[in-house]
């Protein structure tokens, strides 16, 4: 009995935790390729701490480097913070800051560079009513997802103590 509740809770938490992180696929269905304006793509997305950015590309042809602003502006990988080569790279955006990613094989000069601003999470809703009454904005789905996670956590703690 207790065991099956725990399993249900673990599952519920897993699902709602997954729901809180958005995976932003760079370039959407065009992926990570030359001659795409990724500034336009980035301007169309809102990034929050805990989200993922993912790069899809032909493995061995392209790659991904996280660099600083100099690296982004000049297409250089000196002092790169990280690099990825799997062809399907999921990179967690764990800090509220501007991130810079470029392709490290020269294709940065053909536009394979993207910079995104990651925002801190908005404060959790104080009540469902407050969330309902706030004007619709881009944060609303996030608030919903956060309350989903919160209620699962509460529900699970409730069950554990029963
Ligand atoms: C990409 O689009 C942005 C916004 O319209 C523009 O400022 C920028 O010059 C474009 N970049 C390239 C390489 O065309
Ligand atoms: C921006 O988002 C809209 C709606 O999702 C989409 O139709 C459009 O193609 C996007 N533009 C770019 C440059 O990604
Ligand atoms: C970046 O490129 C600019 C213009 O080409 C140059 O003036 C600058 O010195 C470069 N910066 C670095 C750190 O290489
Ligand atoms: C980026 O890193 C390079 C190499 O470590 C360094 O020379 C440069 O000053 C850095 N640029 C910024 C804007 O921090
Ligand atoms: C790529 O990252 C690994 C560590 O994850 C590092 O050892 C390697 O030197 C990096 N490669 C380049 C070209 O920076």
Automatic annotation (TrEMBL):
May act as a carbohydrate transporter. Residues 22-120 form the Phytocyanin domain. The keyword Disulfide bond applies. The lineage of its organism: Eukaryota, Viridiplantae, Streptophyta, Embryophyta, Tracheophyta. It comes from Phaseolus vulgaris. Pfam families: Cu_bind_like (PF02298). PROSITE patterns: PHYTOCYANIN. Belongs to the early nodulin-like (ENODL) family. GO terms for molecular function: electron transfer activity. Residues 1-21 form the signal peptide. Keywords: Disulfide bond, Glycoprotein, Signal. This is Phytocyanin domain-containing protein. SUPFAM superfamilies: Cupredoxins (SSF49503). One of its GO terms (cellular component) is plasma membrane. PANTHER family: BLUE COPPER PROTEIN, OS09G0557900 PROTEIN.
